[in-house]
Amino acid sequence: MSKTVVITGASSGIGKALALEFAQRGYNLGLAARRLDKLEALRAEIVLLPGCQNLQVEVIELDVNQTDTVGPVLHTLFSHLNQVDVVIVNAGVNKLTSIGKGQLNEELGLIQTNLLGAIATVNAAVEWFKQAGGGQLVGISSLASLTPIPKQAAYCATKAAFSMYLDSAAIELKKYKIDVTKILPGFVKTDIVDNMDKFPFVVSAEQAAKEMAQHIEKRRSTGVVPAYPWKLLKPLLANMPSGVWRYMK
Protein backbone atom coordinates (compact mmCIF):
# COMPACT_ATOMS: atom_id res chain seq x y z
CA MET A 1 0.00 0.00 0.00
CA SER A 2 1.26 3.48 -0.87
CA LYS A 3 2.35 5.69 2.00
CA THR A 4 0.61 8.97 2.79
CA VAL A 5 2.24 12.29 3.66
CA VAL A 6 0.45 15.33 5.05
CA ILE A 7 1.99 18.75 4.38
CA THR A 8 1.01 22.10 5.90
CA GLY A 9 1.72 25.32 4.04
CA ALA A 10 1.41 23.30 0.85
CA SER A 11 0.00 25.98 -1.45
CA SER A 12 3.34 27.52 -2.43
CA GLY A 13 7.11 27.51 -1.94
CA ILE A 14 8.74 24.57 -0.21
CA GLY A 15 5.38 23.05 0.71
CA LYS A 16 4.19 22.93 -2.89
CA ALA A 17 7.54 21.58 -4.05
CA LEU A 18 7.37 18.85 -1.40
CA ALA A 19 3.86 17.90 -2.53
CA LEU A 20 5.00 17.53 -6.14
CA GLU A 21 8.13 15.62 -5.10
CA PHE A 22 6.29 13.12 -2.92
CA ALA A 23 3.57 12.66 -5.54
CA GLN A 24 6.25 11.64 -8.04
CA ARG A 25 7.56 9.20 -5.43
CA GLY A 26 4.13 7.55 -5.30
CA TYR A 27 2.79 8.96 -2.04
CA ASN A 28 -0.84 9.79 -1.38
CA LEU A 29 -1.19 13.35 -0.14
CA GLY A 30 -3.03 15.41 2.45
CA LEU A 31 -2.45 19.10 1.76
CA ALA A 32 -3.34 22.00 4.05
CA ALA A 33 -2.93 25.77 3.66
CA ARG A 34 -4.81 29.05 3.98
CA ARG A 35 -5.41 29.38 0.23
CA LEU A 36 -7.81 26.61 -0.71
CA ASP A 37 -7.96 27.72 -4.34
CA LYS A 38 -4.20 27.26 -4.63
CA LEU A 39 -4.46 23.78 -3.12
CA GLU A 40 -7.20 22.76 -5.54
CA ALA A 41 -5.06 24.00 -8.44
CA LEU A 42 -2.13 22.01 -7.07
CA ARG A 43 -4.26 18.88 -6.80
CA ALA A 44 -5.29 19.28 -10.43
CA GLU A 45 -1.62 19.66 -11.38
CA ILE A 46 -0.58 16.57 -9.42
CA VAL A 47 -3.11 14.18 -10.93
CA LEU A 48 -1.87 15.12 -14.41
CA LEU A 49 1.68 14.05 -13.59
CA PRO A 50 2.81 10.76 -15.15
CA GLY A 51 1.94 7.87 -12.84
CA CYS A 52 0.00 10.07 -10.39
CA GLN A 53 -3.52 9.68 -11.79
CA ASN A 54 -4.63 7.23 -9.10
CA LEU A 55 -3.10 8.96 -6.09
CA GLN A 56 -5.38 10.10 -3.30
CA VAL A 57 -4.97 13.86 -2.89
CA GLU A 58 -7.07 15.51 -0.18
CA VAL A 59 -6.98 19.25 0.47
CA ILE A 60 -8.27 21.39 3.31
CA GLU A 61 -8.16 25.04 4.33
CA LEU A 62 -6.00 25.65 7.39
CA ASP A 63 -4.75 28.82 9.07
CA VAL A 64 -2.18 27.76 11.67
CA ASN A 65 -2.47 31.19 13.29
CA GLN A 66 -5.85 30.04 14.59
CA THR A 67 -4.23 27.57 16.95
CA ASP A 68 -7.48 26.37 18.52
CA THR A 69 -8.71 25.13 15.12
CA VAL A 70 -5.50 23.40 13.99
CA GLY A 71 -6.24 20.12 15.75
CA PRO A 72 -9.85 19.73 14.58
CA VAL A 73 -9.01 20.73 10.99
CA LEU A 74 -6.04 18.38 10.70
CA HIS A 75 -7.91 15.49 12.30
CA THR A 76 -10.66 16.01 9.72
CA LEU A 77 -8.03 15.81 6.98
CA PHE A 78 -6.43 12.73 8.54
CA SER A 79 -9.80 10.98 8.73
CA HIS A 80 -10.31 11.44 4.97
CA LEU A 81 -7.06 9.61 4.23
CA ASN A 82 -6.62 5.85 4.24
CA GLN A 83 -3.66 6.24 6.58
CA VAL A 84 -1.20 8.89 7.76
CA ASP A 85 2.48 7.92 7.71
CA VAL A 86 4.27 11.28 7.67
CA VAL A 87 3.23 14.77 8.76
CA ILE A 88 5.43 17.65 7.57
CA VAL A 89 5.10 20.81 9.67
CA ASN A 90 6.01 23.36 7.02
CA ALA A 91 3.69 26.37 7.26
CA GLY A 92 5.74 29.45 8.04
CA VAL A 93 6.61 33.01 7.11
CA ASN A 94 9.71 35.17 6.96
CA LYS A 95 10.01 38.93 7.14
CA LEU A 96 12.81 41.38 7.84
CA THR A 97 12.16 43.27 11.08
CA SER A 98 14.09 45.98 12.91
CA ILE A 99 14.05 46.06 16.69
CA GLY A 100 12.70 49.27 18.24
CA LYS A 101 11.23 50.61 15.01
CA GLY A 102 7.54 50.00 15.58
CA GLN A 103 7.47 46.49 14.16
CA LEU A 104 6.38 44.64 17.28
CA ASN A 105 3.20 43.36 15.63
CA GLU A 106 5.22 41.95 12.73
CA GLU A 107 7.54 40.18 15.17
CA LEU A 108 4.61 38.79 17.14
CA GLY A 109 3.10 37.60 13.86
CA LEU A 110 6.25 35.62 13.09
CA ILE A 111 6.11 34.03 16.52
CA GLN A 112 2.42 33.19 16.11
CA THR A 113 2.89 31.45 12.76
CA ASN A 114 6.35 29.92 12.95
CA LEU A 115 6.29 28.78 16.56
CA LEU A 116 2.80 28.64 18.05
CA GLY A 117 1.20 27.45 14.82
CA ALA A 118 3.94 24.87 14.38
CA ILE A 119 3.54 23.60 17.94
CA ALA A 120 -0.22 23.30 17.45
CA THR A 121 0.41 21.27 14.30
CA VAL A 122 2.89 18.99 16.07
CA ASN A 123 0.38 18.30 18.84
CA ALA A 124 -2.37 17.44 16.36
CA ALA A 125 -0.07 15.04 14.51
CA VAL A 126 1.22 13.37 17.66
CA GLU A 127 -2.29 12.81 19.01
CA TRP A 128 -3.15 10.99 15.78
CA PHE A 129 0.08 9.01 15.67
CA LYS A 130 -0.34 7.82 19.25
CA GLN A 131 -3.73 6.38 18.38
CA ALA A 132 -2.33 4.84 15.18
CA GLY A 133 0.64 3.25 16.91
CA GLY A 134 3.37 5.38 15.37
CA GLY A 135 4.41 7.61 12.50
CA GLN A 136 6.96 10.17 11.39
CA LEU A 137 6.87 13.83 12.32
CA VAL A 138 8.91 16.23 10.18
CA GLY A 139 9.57 19.84 11.14
CA ILE A 140 10.90 22.39 8.66
CA SER A 141 13.17 24.60 10.75
CA SER A 142 16.11 26.59 9.33
CA LEU A 143 19.85 27.05 9.54
CA ALA A 144 18.85 30.47 10.87
CA SER A 145 18.08 28.62 14.10
CA LEU A 146 21.83 28.24 14.64
CA THR A 147 23.18 31.76 14.25
CA PRO A 148 22.15 35.37 14.90
CA ILE A 149 21.22 37.40 11.82
CA PRO A 150 20.63 41.18 11.85
CA LYS A 151 17.05 42.23 11.07
CA GLN A 152 15.96 38.61 11.46
CA ALA A 153 15.91 38.45 15.25
CA ALA A 154 12.29 37.32 15.49
CA TYR A 155 12.62 34.82 12.64
CA CYS A 156 15.82 33.31 14.07
CA ALA A 157 14.21 33.12 17.50
CA THR A 158 11.17 31.24 16.18
CA LYS A 159 13.30 28.72 14.32
CA ALA A 160 15.68 28.23 17.26
CA ALA A 161 12.74 27.60 19.56
CA PHE A 162 11.09 25.22 17.09
CA SER A 163 14.33 23.29 16.62
CA MET A 164 14.67 22.80 20.37
CA TYR A 165 11.01 21.77 20.54
CA LEU A 166 11.61 19.13 17.87
CA ASP A 167 14.78 17.87 19.57
CA SER A 168 12.91 17.47 22.84
CA ALA A 169 9.96 15.84 21.09
CA ALA A 170 12.27 13.28 19.47
CA ILE A 171 13.32 12.03 22.90
CA GLU A 172 9.83 12.14 24.41
CA LEU A 173 8.06 10.41 21.52
CA LYS A 174 10.48 7.57 20.86
CA LYS A 175 8.57 5.21 23.17
CA TYR A 176 5.44 5.79 21.06
CA LYS A 177 7.24 4.71 17.86
CA ILE A 178 7.07 8.26 16.52
CA ASP A 179 10.21 9.29 14.66
CA VAL A 180 11.08 12.99 14.46
CA THR A 181 13.02 14.49 11.57
CA LYS A 182 14.28 18.08 11.76
CA ILE A 183 15.04 19.76 8.43
CA LEU A 184 17.46 22.71 8.36
CA PRO A 185 17.26 24.50 5.00
CA GLY A 186 19.73 27.16 3.97
CA PHE A 187 18.74 29.75 1.37
CA VAL A 188 15.83 28.48 -0.72
CA LYS A 189 14.26 30.58 -3.46
CA THR A 190 10.54 30.89 -2.69
CA ASP A 191 7.86 33.54 -2.84
CA ILE A 192 8.07 34.34 0.90
CA VAL A 193 11.54 35.89 0.64
CA ASP A 194 12.52 38.57 -1.88
CA ASN A 195 15.94 39.12 -3.46
CA MET A 196 17.20 35.61 -2.71
CA ASP A 197 19.63 35.81 -5.62
CA LYS A 198 21.96 38.01 -3.57
CA PHE A 199 22.51 35.25 -0.99
CA PRO A 200 25.14 32.49 -1.30
CA PHE A 201 24.39 28.88 -2.21
CA VAL A 202 20.73 29.52 -3.08
CA VAL A 203 18.79 26.49 -4.33
CA SER A 204 15.39 26.22 -5.95
CA ALA A 205 12.43 24.96 -3.97
CA GLU A 206 12.37 21.91 -6.24
CA GLN A 207 15.99 20.99 -5.51
CA ALA A 208 15.45 21.57 -1.80
CA ALA A 209 12.34 19.38 -1.80
CA LYS A 210 14.21 16.54 -3.48
CA GLU A 211 16.94 16.58 -0.81
CA MET A 212 14.39 16.93 1.98
CA ALA A 213 12.47 13.93 0.70
CA GLN A 214 15.65 11.86 0.78
CA HIS A 215 16.27 12.78 4.43
CA ILE A 216 12.64 12.05 5.29
CA GLU A 217 12.56 8.67 3.58
CA LYS A 218 15.75 7.68 5.40
CA ARG A 219 14.09 8.82 8.66
CA ARG A 220 17.13 10.86 9.62
CA SER A 221 16.98 12.84 12.84
CA THR A 222 18.39 15.95 11.12
CA GLY A 223 18.71 16.89 7.47
CA VAL A 224 20.70 19.89 6.23
CA VAL A 225 19.59 21.25 2.83
CA PRO A 226 21.44 21.67 0.58
CA ALA A 227 24.01 19.30 2.01
CA TYR A 228 26.85 21.17 0.32
CA PRO A 229 28.18 23.43 1.73
CA TRP A 230 25.89 23.79 4.74
CA LYS A 231 26.54 20.39 6.28
CA LEU A 232 30.22 21.31 6.47
CA LEU A 233 29.49 24.84 7.71
CA LYS A 234 26.81 23.87 10.26
CA PRO A 235 29.26 23.56 13.20
CA LEU A 236 30.71 26.97 12.35
CA LEU A 237 27.27 28.58 12.20
CA ALA A 238 26.36 27.14 15.58
CA ASN A 239 29.46 28.70 17.14
CA MET A 240 29.61 31.98 15.25
CA PRO A 241 29.76 34.90 17.71
CA SER A 242 27.30 37.72 17.10
CA GLY A 243 30.19 40.16 16.81
CA VAL A 244 31.15 38.62 13.46
CA TRP A 245 28.19 40.38 11.84
CA ARG A 246 29.69 43.78 12.68
CA TYR A 247 32.40 43.05 10.15
CA MET A 248 30.03 41.66 7.52
CA LYS A 249 27.90 44.74 6.91
Question: Mind sketching the topology for me?
Answer:
Layout lengths: L3 E5 L4 H12 L3 E6 L2 H12 L9 E5 L5 H13 L6 E4 L14 H29 L2 E6 L12 H21 L4 E8 L2 E2 L13 E2 H13 L4 E4 L1 H12 L11
Helix pairs in contact: 1-6, 3-4, 4-5
| CATH level-3 fold name | Rossmann fold
Whole-number total of structural domains: 1
Instruction: Give the ordered list of helices and strands.
Output: EHEHEHEHEHEEEHEH
Based on CA atoms alone, the radius of gyration comes out at 18 Å
| Helix-strand category | alpha/beta
| Order of the strands making up the biggest sheet | 3-2-1-4-5-6-9
Oligomer: single chain
Could you report the average pLDDT, rounded to the nearest whole number?
90
**What spatial form do the alpha-carbon principal axes imply?**
globular
State the end-to-end distance.
Answer: 53 Å
* Number of helices in the DSSP assignment: 7
Q: Which CATH architecture?
A: 3-Layer(aba) Sandwich
Strand content: 15-25%
Largest sheet: 7 strands, parallel
CATH class: Alpha Beta
Low-confidence stretches: none
CATH superfamily: NAD(P)-binding Rossmann-like Domain
DSSP E strands, number: 9
What is the helical fraction, as a range of percent? 40-55%
